[in-house]
Every structure is written in C-alpha cells, then in structure tokens.
Amino acid sequence: MEKELRLVGVNLKTLEVHGERALQRENSFTDLVRSLQCRVKEVRIRWYSIIELVMVMHDTLSVVRMCTYTFFVSLTNARWEK
C-alpha cells in the first residue's frame, strides 16, 4: 500500500511538472500569436499606404502625360501658324 502511494505521488508530481511545462508553452505560443498578429496588421497598413501612393503616382503621371502632350501639340500648332 505504501509503495502504491509513493507511486501515485510520483505520478502526480510528474503530471504537475508536465502541466506547468504545457502551460509555459501555451503562454509562449499565445505571445507569439499576438506578436504575429501585430506584424500582420503593420504589414497591411504599409500595404494599403503603398497602394495609395501608387494610385497617386499613377494619377500624377497621367496629368504629366496630358500636359506634355498638350505642350507638344501647342508647339506644333505654333509652328504651323507661322
């Protein structure tokens, strides 16, 4: 009986140690998930900022092209009018 009680005590201690380790791993994984979620959020914010910048640059380029075209057309017309 005493031997069985000791065995139960050892098993309980082993379970307790394994439980503590599992809890530490769970906390570590929880921290990792939170960290990765923050990084994903930051990447999304940067991604949308880049998309907005590209759209603005595209619009600006369109205006520059239009102005350049208009300038050359006006030069051509000025030459023909002389």
How would you portray this structure in words?
It contains one helix and no strands. It starts with a helix and ends with a helix. Helices cover about 100% and strands about 0% of the residues. The chain is an all-alpha fold. It is rod-shaped, with a radius of gyration of 35 Å. It has one helix at about 1-80.
Keywords:
single chain; 82 residues; mainly alpha; 1 helix; 98% helix; rod-shaped
Blueprint (SSEs and pairs):
Elements: H1 2-81
Structural class: mainly alpha
Q: What integer value in Å does the Rg equal?
A: 35 Å
Q: Percent range for helical residues?
A: over 70%
Quaternary structure annotation: single chain
Number of DSSP-assigned strands = 0
Strand content: under 5%
Gross geometry: rod-shaped
Poorly predicted regions:
none
> How is the biggest beta sheet arranged?
none
Please summarize what this structure is:
The chain has one helix spanning 2-81.
